[in-house]
Fold this sequence. Notes:
heterodimer; A: 0% strand; B: alpha/beta; Rossmann fold; Alpha-Beta Plaits; 2 domains; six-stranded mixed beta sheet; four-stranded antiparallel beta sheet; 11 helices; 14 strands; ATP hydrolysis activity (chain B); translocase (chain B); transport (chain B); ATP-binding (chain B); membrane (chain B)
Amino acid sequence: MMLRDWFPNVNMDDMWTATYETLYMTIISVIGTLLLGIMLGLLLFLTERGNLLQNSMVNSATASVVNIFRAIPFIILILLLFPFTDFLMGTNRGPKAALPALIIGAAPFYARLVEIAFKEVDKGVIEAAKSMGAKTHTIIFKVLLPESMPALISGITVTAINLISYTAMAGVIGAGGLGDLAYMKGFQRRDVDVVFACTIFIVIIVFIFQFIGDALSRKADKR
Amino acid sequence: MMISIKQLSKLYRMKSQNVQAVDDVTLDIKRGDIFGVIGYSGAGKSTFIRLINRLEEPTQGQVMINDTNITELSVNKLRKERQKIGMIFQHFNLLWSRTVYENIAFPLEIAGVTKQKRRDKVLELIELVGLSGREQSYPSQLSGGQKQRVGIARALANDPDVLLCDEATSALDPETTDDILNLLVSINQKLNLTIIMITHEMHVIQKICHRVAVMDQGKVVEQGDVLDVFVKPQSKTAKRFVQQLNPLEHNQDSLKPFITKEENSEVVKLHFIGNDAKRALISNVLKTFDIEINILQGSISPTQEGTYGTLYVELDGNRSVIDETIKFIQSSGVEVEVIDDVT
């Protein structure tokens, strides 16, 4: 078979296992990032001057944390979080061990996108909700979140794609997945075909995420 | 008295300067009235209407609605109270993510109304504002007028006592504006709803309001029955608004070419107010007095409180007959204003 000739060193069982690990890390960390990011984004938005829960102390504290974590290169963040990961997950190796670093690395970035999405919500609509006697949590869940949904979805799509490349980086220090496979089996042993096969798989995963994200965002947008 | 506003003020403190957006406003509004507040942009009328339901916190003063002191309510009680104060907006402020049905249901969800009751109420309101069949449309699929109808239905959902309208027709074309104004009048009559209407358009006031307050630089410079303000505007701002409505009438220079004689004639402006506007006064005068009447210009404006008309005529005849004629017209209830500077 042709594929065998082009990819002599590729073991399909390894590839599928690695793909599964990459997907596992990506999906779980996307969910974690979504929750943490929306919470941080809400906090940033609501505590802003002139907003519902105006509080400059909380606002600048949150903004500092978000900025600091966004400034740390991901590969260094993993190393910094080693002890924390050990404590939380009981291990420093495998896909599970990568999750804290992935979420903490991506959530601040997503939080900024969430904040921007909320800022885009028509102030008049929030005012209208207030004039009807809505509570803050009603405004959050029934106005802010639904009215910013397309931007929240496209934001998490961009973040998910970042996370896929983060998982590959995490692979280099033993988190498993396609990045790990490309580095250990491909790069270290000079089996370029393995690196190439992993690249193709990752690109396909990225395309699928982008496609799903675009479709969901379009579906949510009734403007 | 339905709404009583006392010495209401709002001061914005800013770095470089303080802005007195609303300055010591005192107003009383009767139940069932359509009360207009007119002013140019920057006059503070938008801030004023937001002080009523405390979307903006007043710096000073008091707002009483139905004997409830709005300005003293706690946050929780204010939220409850707001459910009884509907509000509509210039840009409609509908949630694009919700259908017409869901938009109207929103205030009912906030008030904790059960799903079944919500359904009945929403369908009733959709019927009331004439949007039957559009329940499942999204706002983006509606015209401006239809969006404002959704806004009105939404504002009425919790059976409010008061409806606040913030430039509710300013984003609409003239025809749609008329439709929306007619809808507001019919709601006002059907539900005996008190309406406060902010606008910069005099014809809106003329068409639907019973009483009007004129705002300038945060102050109410004039208030009263719409007809009175129309006939005899006192303040400069009110005069400008009345003029803007009927620019021809106030340009007395344009009368000059039509005046036939310089002597033995008098140019007068007649004010027909309310039912007087319906009588055949001129032919009556002609039958009674030996006098020529040259009609120069006339106009008529319908308002909620009756019709208001003006007529410029030149009376030509004996001095004494002219004086008698003027007395006769005055005694029939029509006001006569002698215009000196034209002749």
